[in-house]
Structure formats: C-alpha cells, structure tokens
Amino acid sequence: MRVALRSSAIGLLAYLLLEPPDFTLANPNASSAADVRLAYFGAILFSALSVSRPAFVIPVAVYISSTRLLVEEISNLQMSTLDIRYMLDMALYLSLFGAGGLTIVRLIHPYFPDERRQQEIAYVAFGLHLGNYFWSGVAKLMIGPHLWTWILENQTFNTIPYAIVNGTLPIGHLPWLVQPVFDFMHVIVRPLNLAIVGFQLFAIVCALRLAWLKLASLFYDLLHIGIWILGGLFFWPWVWNNVTILLAANAQRSPIKPSAKAACILTILLGMPSVPFYPNLPFYKAAGLGWFDVADARQTYFEAITNDGRRARVPSSFFLSHSYSVSHGYMDTVPHVGHYSHTWWGSAHDYDRLLSSGKCLTPDAVPADTLERAEQRIERLNKVGNFIRAHHTKMLHWQSWLGSHGYYFSRLYHHPSNPFLFGPFNALNLGDVVAYNLVVESVCHRLVRGSPETTVIMRTETRFDVAR
User: In this structure, are residues 173 and 422 in contact, taking their beta carbons and an 8 Å threshold?
Assistant: First the structure.
C-alpha cells in the first residue's frame, strides 16, 4: 500500500507540474480565477510534501477537483474530469483510509494497521481504477443488438482518418506509414476488438493472482499507447494508475489475501455506471466507454482568419488548459438541422449509424423540441465569443515569451496536437488574425493513400472578430 500511495502522490505532483490550470478569464465576474492561480503554488508545495507525508494528498486532491469545478465559471467552457478523476480517487482513498488508518485509527484500535486491512485498502483503490476497464468492456458488449456486435462489426480503424483531420494522430503526417497501418488494422479488426473486450472484462478477476494483476496492468498501458498512436488520445493519468498498480504488485511479497481479492472485485462491481433498479449507486461511477467508431460524424473546431483572408484550422493545443474541451467540441454540443448529433471523437451509439458508416448519408431529421431557442443561442455564442477573444489576447502576450509555437510542447495534453498537421496555422502571424470562425461540420472521412479525404455534408460557421 505504501508503494501505491507514494506513486499516486507523485502522479498528482506530475499532473500539477505538467498541466497547470492556466485558465482563460472569459468571465470578468469570476473572482475564483485569482484564487485558482494563487492556490496553485500552495498545491505544489503540499503535493511535494505528500510524497513523504501522505496526509498532504488531501488538500492537493481537493484543489485539483475544485479547479475542474470552477473552470466553466472562469472560461465559459466546460471541461471533462474523465482524464484525472480516477487518479484523484485512488490517491484520496489511499490517503484517507491507508495513511489515516496507520496514523489515527491505530491509536484507538489495531484494526487498520493490520497487514490484511492495509492490503484490502490497497485493493479497493485498485478496484476504483480497474472498474473503468471492466465496465467499458461490458458497455461494448451491450451497445449493439447482440453481445458480439461490437467485436464483429465495430470499425475501429475509423479512428485513424478522424484523428488525422482532428490533428492529433502522432503519425498522421506520414502517409507512407499511415496507409499500411490502416490496412493492417482493417485486416485484424475482429481479433483486435476481441482482445480489447476480453482484456477489459479480465479486470474483474485480474486481482485473483499477482501475475494476472501485473499482466493486466501492462496490457492496459499498452492499450493506451496504442490508442494514442492510432487514435490520438493520450490519457496519461490512466497510464500512471496502471504503473502504480504494477509497482505495488511487484513490491508485494505475500500472497493476495482472499479478503483483498473480494474487496477489489466488490469495488469493481459497485462502479456499475447504471442499473434499472438503482440508476445511481452511492459509491462511485466507473467509466463505461463503449461506442461505435464511424466514418461520418460531426466535428467542431475553431478556424483562424487573417486580415488578407487566409483561413487555417486552429490546433487544440493552442488552447492550453482548454485544449481538452476544445478537442471535445464543447463550444457547440446542441442539435442542429442538417447535422449529425454531437458525439466525441467520431463515435456513435446508434447501431443504424454503424450500418450506414462511410455512406455519407444525410443526417436524420432533428426533433423541433430539441432545437436551441434564439435566446439560448445568443447566450451560448456570447460566452464562446468572450472565450475566444480573451484567449486570443492571452496568446498574443504568451507567444512573446514562449515563442510562436511553444504551446505544442508547453504542457502534457490528453489530445495532443501534431504540429506537422497544422502547417497553414503555423505559418500565420497571430497578430494578423482578425477573427475566428466557430465551425460545426458534419463530414464523412475515408483514407486514400494515407491521407484523409473528407466529404462535407453540412457546414455551419459563426464568426467572432477579435481585437488587434
């Protein structure tokens, strides 16, 4: 448990150093912006202390969680917690029950300091993370009309052209490499899907043996590396959690106690995302990640416009702390006539969308009662406009001391932009940018000789002029 607690504490410190909360102040009435900046230095101090004094994990976890709750008030742009939530859960649980049991409860009763209790606490913490894989495997089994639908029919290779267009595929600028990789994925897609689902379901039993736990941790990290290389998504806090589990398993000298095995399995089961008879279990909610990868989907992004009329798609990394939100398209998630529904990363949850993938069909009609009202649209676009104008101003000052393209490498991103895919934007002088378009596109992608060809079914633009 000590190894897991220390590794989790180091992970939180790495998060604060590699992803500082540099939020864009788009709401001048948000007094919390100054609090976030000021408290950051205290969080760094506590985080450094927590490596040797685990109790300091608690204020660090509270700070990180609080910044995610405050970001929308500050910037007018929401941000998912999926990337960091389970690292926080593991670290906070180990600190409260592990370190707390050793330092406080032991004065009252020797229950917590007992080796068996410590092992049970550690394996509950492991279950908080492993539950994400198990329930994601279950989600893939449940998404189609049959349990085997996702395995046999999901077109996992569609992540490649979408990630190139989105600008996050690490190998996307190498068509000579992309095409054979894409073709190979096309050939092995069913065995690959089967392996993914099988190993995700394996999470429920991997804690029964130390060797299985180590194997699962290694596979899940290999899975994340593969998702980054072939899909442009890099959830490094999840990778860190798996390394934490692996290090703790390697340091463990005694067999896993039956009670610890049961604790891990029960924790995983309690993470069920939803059930008909009790939709909100009061323990925690695991990530049930299951969708179909489709060739035709909706994408939302910003496009820079210069004073001489040039246009260039803006990389999500340009938005620093908000790159995760911009890449998710949180600027516009509402239904639009003539557009596909908003989803993340070229995904769809409707089986009919999988069947029509790649056919570039006209999107289904949008029910009138789901459309945005005029006053809602004005309010939303005002918030987006305030954000992009404030961020543009910030980046004009930012580039003066970190360089024109320093944002690509200034922090660790979850959807890192590949600078080689943004030649037109890299060639711009930010001082020449006079406006940004918020672009919503319903598109159909296919890969031809290693490069994506895109059919635009519907495109909607909203222009925001910026100060020069």
Answer: no
The owner of tokens 């200034």 is 410
Q: What order do you get walking across the sheet with 311-313 strand by strand?
A: 311-313, 296-306, 433-448, 451-465
Question: Quick one: pLDDT band at residue 282, thresholds 50, 70, 90?
Answer: low
The distance in angstroms from the start CA to the end CA of the chain is: 55
pTM higher than 0.90, yes or no?
A: yes
pLDDT in tens, 284-343: 788 889 999 999 999 999 999 999 999 999 999 999 999 999 999 999 999 999 999 888
Calculate the CA dihedral of residues 434, 439, 445, 450 and round it to 10 degrees.
20
Token pair listed for 248 = 């703790």
Q: What is the three-class DSSP state of 186?
A: helix
Q: Which amino acid makes up residue 80?
A: S
| Amino acid, single-letter form, for residue 62 | V
| Phi, psi (rounded to 5 degrees) for 298 | -105, 140
The pair of structure tokens assigned to 393 is 């101003």
The predicted-structure confidence for 387-412, as pLDDT tens digits, reads as follows 999 999 999 988 877 777 889 998 98
